[in-house]
Structure formats: structure tokens, C-alpha cells
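Kindly inspect this one:
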Amino acid sequence: MFDLTGRVAVVTGGSSGLGVQFAHALGRQGATVIVIARRTHLLEKVAASIAEESGVKTGWYYCDVTKSELVREVADKIEAEYGKIDIAVNCAGGGNCDWSEKISDENWHKTMDVNINGLFYCCREFGRIMIKHGYGRMINISSMLGSIGLDVEYGAGIPEYAASKGAVNNLTRQLGIEWARYGVTVNAIAPGFFASEVSPVGNEKFDNFLKLKCPMKRPGAPGELDSAVVFLAADESRYVTSQIVGVDGGWTCQ
């Protein structure tokens, strides 16, 4: 069950953080894994690490997902080299912490450009290839903050990130409806707080906040998103689409 041998998987934001975890998880299930990001020196290491761990074919491409023409170019190159795109994990993203009344136009647009514009470009370009081949598993990486707000007790606002992830959720639902007839499923994973380059996890004040607010009293651990991405990527999940799968230690159920 959940064997991905013969499938071609693309992971954006694949140079660090959760993107690396998702890429390794798909490789362990037998998928050919292509990682995409801007930091090529890291991409090369990630691809080599997956190949060494799982013995699968890997590749990498430079791409700034906020540039639609680059996303299209990379999508076409992947199809030309690997023949198809079966699985796409759209993980590239970021955000800024500031109060709504203080956030700058620059930071607002920067976050929106990556988290929603860039994600849409990837969905569109990878999706057209999936539609052509009559098969696809599109997996968008959202956040629990796409459904709830962050309690200001922590001492920071995050309005543009929350707004962008709410947009990701509804885009996911809409694309799932539009593409169901083509054999392409579109779902999202909505993580709680996990350690990454941009996450506040590891900050003592924030970790104490987590213990207060999260039912499990802790952040997510490495590997605890693997089952969600593998499930949504698998053939067996063909009847699952337009769903937002929360992996947040119970936070959003309160």
C-alpha cells in the first residue's frame, strides 16, 4: 500500500525545512523526486541525500516560484526529461510577524507573492501537465492559520500569512472541483507549528505559548507530516480531493 514506484514527484521549497522532509518521505516510498527552490547549493545536497537514502532517481532545478515564466519553463523541462509529473507538493512559502496596523506594503506583497501567487503558478503549470496525462496528485502546503487566527498572547501578529493560507485553502477546494474530471486530485496539508528556518519553534517564549495552547503541549516533530503527504500522493487516495488535512496536535479542534 502507498507504493509510489514509477511516480514522478516535484517538491517546491525543497532546499530546506518541511520541503526536505516531504521530499524524503516520497523518496522512501519509491518515487522519483525532483526538488525545486532558489538555493541551488542546497538543492544538490538534498537530491543526493534522497538518492543515497532511498536508491531512487532524483533531480533538482532552480526556480523562483514568484516568476510565472520560470515556473512554466521548469515544468516543461521536467516533463521533457521525466515524461510526466504525477505528484506536486507546493511547499515554497514564508511570512512576517507584525501587527496588522504596522505591517508594510512591501512585506504584505512579498508574502502574498510567494504563498498564493507562486503557489497558483505551480498549480497551473504542473496541473496542465497532469491533465494532459490524465493523472495527478496536487498537494498544497497550507497552515492551521488558514483556518484560525493566532492568539495575540504570544505577542505578535501574522495577518498576511494567515490571509495567504486562507486563500490557499479555498484555491485547493476550487481546483479539486475543476480537475476531478481529469483524474487529478487537489488537497492541502495544514500543519501546526514545526521547526524550520522561519518557525518560532525553539524560542523559549513561543514554546511556553505552545504548551499553553496546543492540546499535545508541543510542536510537531520531524517525520510527523510524512504519513499525510504519502497518503495524499498515493493511488489509493483517488477519491480524496478538495480536502484540507490538519496535522496540528489538535490545535484547530478547540
Q: What stands out?
A: Residues 8-247 form a domain with the Rossmann fold fold (CATH 3.40.50.720).
